[in-house]
## 1
Amino acid sequence: MRVSPKLGLRAWLRAAALSSACAGGLALTACAASDSRFDRSELELSDAGLVLGEFPLQPGAVVDGDTIKVDGLDASLRLLAIDTEETFKSEKAWREFEVGWEAYLAAKQGETSRPIKVPTPLGMDAKHWAEDFFSGVTRVRLERDDPKKIRGRFNRYLAYVFVEDEDGEWINYNVEVVRAGMSPYFAKYGFSRRFHAEFVAAQDEARAAKRGIWAEGAQCYTDYDLRLAWWDARGRFVAGFDELAAEDPSYIALDDWDAKQRLAAALGEEVEVLATVGDIRQGERGPKRVLLSRRMFDDFPLIFWDEDVFVDSQIDHYRGEYVRVRGVVTAYTDRRSGERQLQIEVQVPEQVILPDYVPPGRPEDTDPDMVYEGQAIDAQAVEEPASAKPAAGSPDASGSPEPSDSAESAGSPDSPDSHDSPDSGTSADAAGEVGSADADADADADADAPGAPADEGEGAAD
């Protein structure tokens, strides 16, 4: 069954249910688990920290299948657990496609060893499907997956979008996109904590019914089995860390909104952090710095004084991937700016815990998600976007404890958005006076570069 982009919300839900029944092979329990509708009483019982609120859609709200715009927020949305294919946004993109689908796809895939992220006809179908889904809708309800996961790397709100139908039921748009076959279940940045079963069942249903990306002959990416295996492996790595973090506060996910405060409070103590590997830098002098991604212009540095330790850790083979790093939080004072920065010094390779899978493609090729607005980020040249920092003291609609500028001096946390960014280090100012780091005599000439070794009073690693 090819899903028509002109069905409308209620018609789509009825057609999907009928198609599922006709396709067969889906257990009743799976169908029940995939129901993404909730009545008001259930929603009213939701944790307040999970609900952003209800917001009016902007005119022309649909940008593409996984991007919509609402009024009343200071930033746009990043819809969770979905990743529709790209749309053709320029005349140049359309002209590239004029060679024909197979030649176009082969040319794009020939540019990289990584899974590609390019405009496709299925990406256009997803946009049109979304436009029809939201046709006649004037307001939506936005909810989080986790109270600590607030914003993405480019300051976008991380959200599920709910639409109320004529019967007063709230439909999870993110799940319905997967059910329609317009997107796979996108677990690259972790499994959905709240709706994992619903997403799995929706994807199984779409594949069985051969909808969208699962249809034979569809003009879409052809490597979804590879992508899903990779994304699910990443999801399992994150889930394993989350299980440990639930029992031990020394485990800190760098994309939590309060990660900086927790790291500052742990100055001189051992912690284990989870983050994706961003830029890797080696100056003419001084240590090698590996930036763990948090958000643009506010990443967390790992300091490698020993080149052999860096090589043996193999962290450079996992750029863009999640890693876990254990070490003592130390502080360094930049002699140029006077800013105090937090860091972890890696003294033995065993401090770096890598995932148990090999990422697809060559390590030197850029992951398509390490791209901002279609251009690979040049960590030295990119300028901070005007929207990169939230308005001071402006909590979101739910009133949940989002950090203000005084607590989160450089803005909001990293997310499922992108990874490569300029380094400003992670400031320790939020913790108050934490003391300065004294470089030893051999490193004194390089003291202007972040990463000077801290003395014992600053919590230097053993």
Note: The mean pLDDT is 78.
## 2
Amino acid sequence: MGGTLGPVLERAQLPVSEWGNPPKNPETRSIRLEFALLLAPVLFAIGGTFIWLASPLFAHPGGLAADGCHNDRKNGGRHCHRGSSAGQSKSAPSNRAVYYPNCAAARAAGAAPIYSGQPGYGKHLDRDGDGKACE
């Protein structure tokens, strides 16, 4: 072994050559058990922390618009995650006669591009925020 680890390993209670064998000394067994019982909660805490920190990363696949909303394919309408409308699912706005869930629908209706103030305009359709949706 290396010059620095040699003396340390020679003084160890269980020589490296016997690490794979079960200890014959009951005191050594209790030290191993104590080490395992102390190490297990630490490993669980570290693992739990990583899972807790990483869980928001897997909570949503992404694709949010600037307003924090996206089209809810499962239930229809729009679904928001942040901002003033977070947690609400909104269908067609009640104050507008026309609603397009996406630019493909607006183009299919022959309405694209849609300018701010026109029926059917929505911030979710205006990606760059210049007042001209579905450019």
Note: The chain is about 30% helix and 10% strand.
## 3
Amino acid sequence: MTYSSTLKHIHFEIRPVCVDVPSETDAVLGKSMKLTCIYCMKRDEIKAKTRVNWYFKPNEEKGNSSNKTHIYKYEINRSVELDGPFKGRLAWNGSQDLQDVSIQIINVTYNDSGIYECNVSREFEFDFFKPSAFLVKKIQLKVKAKGAAYTLYSEIMMYVLLVCLTFWLLVEMVYCYRKISQSDEQAQDTSPSECLPNKCVSLGVCLLHKNK
């Protein structure tokens, strides 16, 4: 009688979960700033052509009105940085599946304060029709000379906590080492030494003589 068995290979595919989070609105002068724009898809298996356009509108001064400027676009699997005040200072910071279509401003200036508009359009590909979906998000950005006080305080506390944990770990290691050394010394002191007259031998030697 023969037995046969079949092994089945099961493949698990782990996909990242899309979470829509708001963008940060406070930028630090001279630093980089990410403008977050997320447009989650309900079903990952649906194919879609995605186009992204970013616009910028500076803060309106008294008596002056300004129009929004087209500063960045992404289409046909490539990003295009347009001419204007942001030329050379914008970088794509989105995901490969185009659910995250964020961009990054490099070397932030005071003139970067204003309203940023993220426009996303998707054309879904089905057999008989191609429906579309749109998303518009606006981000009010403020540029400051330095980071907020609580941010600096958090960084300082993080380093202080790291130093304290390192010191505590060293103390625990020294304490454990001393306890082990004391236990070894006590074990050696309490080992029997009555096997041979007028001689002090360890437990192993005693057992050896007894076996003989």
Note: The two ends are 58 Å apart (CA to CA).
